[in-house]
Structures are given as structure tokens and as C-alpha cells.
Amino acid sequence: MLNRVPFNEALVSTVGTPQQAELLDSSPRSRVWRVRLADRRLVIVKQVTDGGDAGADANTRFAREVAGLRLAGRASGPAVAPAVLATDPSSRVMVLEHVDDLGKTDDWMPGYAESLARLHALTGPADAGALPVWSGPTAGDAESFLTLARALDVPVPSTVPHELAGLLERLNPASHHALLHGDPCPGNDLRTADGVRFVDFERASLGNGLIELAYFRIGFPTCWCAMSVTAAPLTEVEDVYRTTWRGLTGKDVPGDIADACAGWLIQGDALVERAHRGTVDQLARVPAEDFEWGNASARERLVHRLGVVADITRDHDHLHALGRLSSAMADRLLERWATLRPLPTQDTRPWF
What we know:
Number of strands: 11
Oligomer: single chain
Order of helices and strands: HEEEHEEHHHEEEEHHHHHEEHH
Mean pLDDT: 94
Strand content: 5-15%
Largest sheet: 5 strands, antiparallel
Distance between the termini: 22 Å
Radius of gyration: 21 Å
């Protein structure tokens, strides 16, 4: 196993000589080892590979992750990510601080929310260009969503296309520079004695932090383990996030979480794992097939998101008609497929 660890002379001179290595489970996009060095320290060695990510260049993903981790390394006080100890760009290898994960806890969300806010607050306008801007929903996504409504025989209120156009304008990330993780899912958050640290920054970007705070409401849209967070815990974690952000920046969190939720709703690619994103119109598949991903099906994820948007936009100035449409679409899905299950609750989150 040791001779498979891509540890060149430059890495040895920087961090030390590897003596033992254990290959860990990881996505098809990388290989990850836990390595014990000659001085008995543990480190994590990660090599970004070519597999498992449609349309994404491995060199670009490597550079993006290293940049995200280094920006995350600015945190004062408890860290929010492992430190980068060394890199070898020629083989797309990074050597990272080893983080001891304390494992399962029942009350995991407040610490997650606090670290997420601390991560987001680390960057600002001066960091423009350090990472790609967040890539949100497009006009094509909006049209696919309306086409799905028509395919389900749900009338589209005349004002919805105008509301969606306004939504896309408000979601423009140009004026936002929060450090977004890109995939803050269970398994990418490690619980330590000092707080939560995030790993796997391959999709790090700059944008509005509400995009990731919305994960709690919208069901963890980029994660195989979709979850529904119930009312009292949801209020608590959003309060923790907003309080932490305000304490660090002196300002209220910018933007509207209803917009963030609606943005996730209309993105068909948020119904499938990363390897399948950008390949076909995923919303167009929903009337004909209920494709599985992780612990929930596409229709189950969609019903949850429709219900969230219907609820959060009930008295919304700019998304009221979209909310009514979402409610009608959720009802139609449940009428046609009565066996659809609610998403699992936050108490069922997996631990790795």
C-alpha cells in the first residue's frame, strides 16, 4: 500500500517520510490515504483524479480545492478546515492536516451552522477572482421548471415567468463574496473538540452564504442523504448562523433565504449526483421516471422542495405566485404517486 501513495521527494522534504498508509473510502474523483510519517504524525494525502465528474477538469478541481482550503485557513480561533501542509500540482496531490473526528452526536446542527457561518465570513470583495463565482440557476432551469408544471397538467399563473426572471436577477452572485464550501454534506463535516471542520472543497466558490444556509430548509440538495429539518431545530440553526455572521461581520446576513430555496427548487441538476449533472434536463425526466439517488428518489426530493417553497413564499412580495404554483405541483405529484415518502428527518443523518 505504501508504494502507491504519490509522495515525491519535494513532499518528503516538506512534511517528512511516510512509513504507513491506509487507503480510505472516497469519491470517484479522488484517492485519499491516511499516512503515518516517520515522526509518528498522521496526515491525510489526497490525489485528485480524472474520474467521476462530468465536464470537470482534474487540474481545475485540484486548484479550486487548494484555493478554497487556503482561504479557509484564515480562520482565527478554531479552524474550519484542515490546514494545507504541502502540495504537488504536477500529480494533483495535497497533504493535509489529519483531523480527529469525534463521530456521532444527536445535536449536530448548531455546531455545523456556526462553522458554516464562520467559513462564509472569511472572504470579502478583496478576494474576487480567488475562486470561481457560485454557479446558480439559469434561464434554462426556469424554463425547464415551467415545462415540468405543464407536463404535470398544473396551470402556470401568468406572473410566474416574471417572478422567476426577478429571482435569477436577485440570485446573481456578483455582489456577494462569501466563501462557499460547495458541497457541505454529512461526511464533509468533521466534528472536533473545537467545532466542526469541513473537508472536500472541490466545488468551493464565492457567493451568498444563504445558498448553503438554505440546505437545512431545502433538504441538503447536493447530498445523497437528503433530510428534512423540523421546525424548532430549523429556527435554532438559522439563528445560530445569523448570530455568528453578525458577530463576525457587524452586519446582518444579506439576501433572502426564500430566494435561495427557490433557486435550489428550479435546478434539475440538484436531483442527481455530481457525475450526472450537466448531462440532460433532469426535471424533464420526472413525469416519466422516478430515479433514485441515495436515500430518496427524485420525486420525493422534489415534493419536499416544492412544499418548502410553497410555505416560505406564502406572504412573499416577489415569489407569491411561484409559491402557489409550487403547492399545486406538490399536490399533483402526490396525487399521481401516492406512495412517495417524506424525506428522512435530521435524526437519521448518517455518520461515517
